[in-house]
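[Q] Does anyone have a clean C-alpha cell version of this?
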Amino acid sequence: MTDGTDQLSQLGKPVSTPDAPEQAQLERVENPHPDTDYVARFTVPEFTSVCPVTGQPDFAHLVLDYVPDRWLVESKSLKLFLTSFRNHGAFHEDCTVHIGRKLVELLEPRWFRIGGYWYPRGGIPIDVFWQHGKLPEGVWAPDQGVAPYRGRG
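[A] Here you go.
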C-alpha cells in the first residue's frame, strides 16, 4: 500500500505561488488511520484576498477542521492554494465557501467546517462559517478559538 507521497508534485520541491486559486494544485495523501475518527485542524491567521470592487486587501483568520476518511490534505499544497488568494478578487463569503468546497471535493471527509473570521472593512467585521456533513458521534471538535471581534488580537 502506498501513502500517496510518490504522487506529490510540490512537496520537497521549489514551487512558485500560483497567481490564482484556479491555478493552484491541491494534493492529498492517504490517511494512515482511516479506521479512527479524529479532527485535523489548520489555522491560517494571516489569510489575504482583495475586494472585488475596490481592489483593496482583505484579511482573515481562517480555521479549517475536518474528520478525515481516506485522505489528508498535503499541507504545502494547502499553503500554496491559500496563498493564491492574495491577488484574487472575491467577497468574504465567496472566499470562505470556495475554500471549504474545494477541500471537501478533494478529501471526501466524514465532516468538515471552516470559520472565516474577517477583519473589518468599513468598520464591520464579517465572519463566515460553512460546514459539510455531521460531526461523528463521540468526536471532540474544540471551539475554533477565535475571539469575537475586539481587534482580533
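[Q] Thanks! Anything notable?
[A] Residues 36-132 form a domain with the GTP Cyclohydrolase I, domain 2 fold (CATH 3.30.1130.10).
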